[in-house]
Amino acid sequence: MTVIVRELRHGDPVDTAGFARIRQQALPFILFTPESVTYDLERAHPDAHRVPLLAEEDGELIGTAQVGLVHDSPEPGQGSLNIYVRPDRTGRGAGSLLARAAEERLAALGATRLHTWVLDEPGHRAFAEKRGYRAARPAHFLRLDLANGTLPALRPPPDGVELRTGADFADDPRPLFRLHAETLGDEPGDVDREFTDYDAWLAETWHHPLLNHELTSVALVDGGPAAFSAAGTDGGTRYATVMTGTGRAFRGRGLAKLAKNDSLHRARAAGFTEAFTGNDAGNVPMLAINDWFGYEICATEVMYVRDLG
């Protein structure tokens, strides 16, 4: 059996479907579709140098790597690689070949620090540590049973607050961009980002095929967006919270709960049966909100970092 690593062939439906399928098998709590894989590749910022890699064993696709630079970081040289192999095809060297190819590619692009997410399992962590990576911070994946669980009751918005959907901003989503940028800047993370490029946000976030504008909920205060819960869907019965946040001036008023509850209720009414979300393990306020909804941790991953040179 021979394993090789190659770039995903742009425009090849077999490659994009294989990439999405492997990710779904390895990370069933994250939404991937062939369309989202193609879109991410076509709309990636040129400075990100994003290249998906595939591991192939005698013609069968068994592993994937997402590789690129964090182009919007104020600190240059930040590289990212995330490697996942089909659970039934581990131990064949695919992960090591993908990691080597990704690291060499990033080093050639001038990366000086590499960041990778690793599942919090002994084999995955040992793989990263053997390659010289050190553990940084954990994050959780959470799941909510929409079909059989009980959501908190819907309550009328308080005075001065109005609930709208992302679709209501179709003509001018810039107010949502400003709110998203402010909340993203306060998220825990290992790499600082300057979230200032509206056109890049439109291409990479607003028009992304997984983002569901109709199920995205926005809480307005005096007519302006104050909190939001962005929803992703994969064309099936799975729903994911892409991002939930509140503007700094409006925190402590329960607006994030209000928006997320509205979105979850509408997702269940639309026939979605599973809801997923992710949280940094240190984001105590958001973890408390998700616990209130009934989410349960279904997996944990750890950010690992390695300095080059």
In short:
The chain has 8 helices and 12 strands. The protein has helices at 13-26, 34-43, 94-108, 122-130, 174-185, 198-206, 255-269, 284-293, and strands at residues 3-7, 51-57, 60-69, 78-85, 113-119, 134-145, 161-165, 211-221, 224-233, 238-246, 274-280, 296-307. Strands 1-2-3-4-5-12-6-11-10-9-8-7 form a 12-stranded mixed sheet, with helices on both faces.
Structure notes:
The chain has 309 residues and is an alpha+beta fold. The protein has two domains: 109 residues, Gcn5-related N-acetyltransferase (GNAT) (Aminopeptidase, 3-Layer(aba) Sandwich); 159 residues, Aminopeptidase (3-Layer(aba) Sandwich), CATH 3.40.630.30. It has eight helices and twelve strands. Strands 1-2-3-4-5-12-6-11-10-9-8-7 form a twelve-stranded mixed β-sheet, with helices on both faces. α1 packs across α2. The longest helix has 15 residues. The protein is globular, with a radius of gyration of 20 Å. The chain starts with a strand and ends with a strand.
Give the helices and strands, then pairings.
Layout: E1 3-7, H1 13-26, H2 34-43, E2 51-57, E3 60-69, E4 78-85, H3 94-108, E5 113-119, H4 122-130, E6 134-145, E7 161-165, H5 174-185, H6 198-206, E8 211-221, E9 224-233, E10 238-246, H7 255-269, E11 274-280, H8 284-293, E12 296-307
Parallel strand pairs: 4-5, 10-11
Antiparallel strand pairs: 1-2, 2-3, 3-4, 5-12, 6-11, 6-12, 7-8, 8-9, 9-10
Helix pairs in contact: 1-2
